[in-house]
Amino acid sequence: MLRLYSSLGRAVLPFRTVAPGEVRMYVCGVTPYDVTHLGHAFSYVQFDALRRYLTALGYRVRYVQNVTDIDDDMIAVSRREGRPIAAIRDENDRLFRADLDALNVLRPTAYPYATDHIPQIVEATAKLIERGYAYEVEGDVFFSVERFPRYGALNGASLEELARRENPEAKKAWKRRHPLDFLLWQRTEPGEPSWPSPWGAGRPGWSIECTVMSIAHLGEQIDIHGGGRDLLFPHHENEIAQAESLTGRSPFCTFWLHNGMLRLEGVKMSKSLGNLVLVRDLLQKVPPAHLRLYLLSFHYRSDPDFRAGDLERLVERYERLRAAAAEPGPPRWPAADDLPTAVRDTLDDDFDVPRALEALDALAGRVLSGAAGSTERAALRAGLAVLGFDFAGAPGPATGWLEPGPAGPK
Ligand SMILES: [Zn+2]
Description:
The protein has helices at 38-56, 72-81, 85-102, 118-130, 159-163, 206-218, 232-247, 279-285, 288-296, 310-313, 315-325, 341-348, 353-368, 374-386; strands spanning 3-6, 11-14, 22-27, 60-65, 134-137, 140-143, 182-187, 202-204, 222-228, 253-259, 263-264, 267-268, 305-306. By secondary structure, it is an alpha/beta fold. It has two domains: 11-263, HUPs (Rossmann fold), CATH 3.40.50.620; 314-393, Four Helix Bundle (Hemerythrin (Met), subunit A), CATH 1.20.120. The strands form four sheets. A four-stranded parallel beta sheet has the order 4-3-9-10, with helices on both faces. Strands 5-6-7-8 form a four-stranded antiparallel beta sheet. A three-stranded mixed beta sheet has the order 12-11-13, with no helix packed on it. Helix 6 packs across helix 7, helix 11 (315-325) packs across helix 13 and helix 12 packs antiparallel against helix 13. The chain starts with a strand and ends in a 24-residue tail after the last helix. It binds zinc ion. Residues 28, 210, 235 line the site of zinc ion (ZN).
């Protein structure tokens, strides 16, 4: 029985879904103003492996990942380079997808752009004003956190505690009724890309984009919402407030999964510190499967510390697994029953991939020493395939619902 830790409630809970046999999963995507760094890859590889495991468990999985293609950073890069935002988006998006393809991350079932959802965002904003959850001040529209009593529940903090935290959304403070009120719609400055609205020319706030795209592509209630721990506040807190105020349904999402933050030689990896490790650069030096193995050798909630020599140290481990699992044959999706019991047990335990890999190392040892029979060899291959290492070939469809194996839901 799969159990997952949800940030909402801060507990490990038995996994359940709104609709039987189906998983609706949304993972916050990138703002394509720059290329993919290792922190992105850690998040998307972990959620990809989870998606594959859910499929092995017999669920149909719908996985949506957005593209935030309008925000302050996009506008700043566009100005600096004198190129349209769409050109910057398309270029970085192509590189991003190529990086993730190399890491054998399956394409999302839907990959929506924020700028393709402006009418729905305007409509949602208007609805929130109409219902008294939002207010307009000179072309800016704010969500009123005091109107939503559960604001802070995801972070387990009161409005007062949250107001003391660093908040990237806290612009135009003088216009806000409460310091935590956040922008649903913002008036644009001259020269910025803008869209017409009942409040004048403007552009969407950040968090409303995800809420609108999640509802548009997955419905009013979803099962898993993923993203980095840095999105817990204010982004995901805002998403819950918006969605539940719009739909009147609670919870918006049952399982809030947050991956840890990658560090470099003990220091937080961030653009502002200038110490980003780019996936492209690493892939010049090591095969993508080694990088995937590295990223999965940490629990998704941990904070991996990337250090010089880490990838080189994985080569032997990877080669042992490959040698033990290599066998010609058509690729196929593994089902849960094909997996070694120890792999299933550890993945069921809050998706503990590092321990599952240890079980696979042990199994590979038995295979290589000749102690394992054909059932164990098949189990080893299934265990690796469910984590996205298919040594017989690349499995699977990348569009539409990700279907389970022929056995169907269990
Ligand atoms: Zn988001």
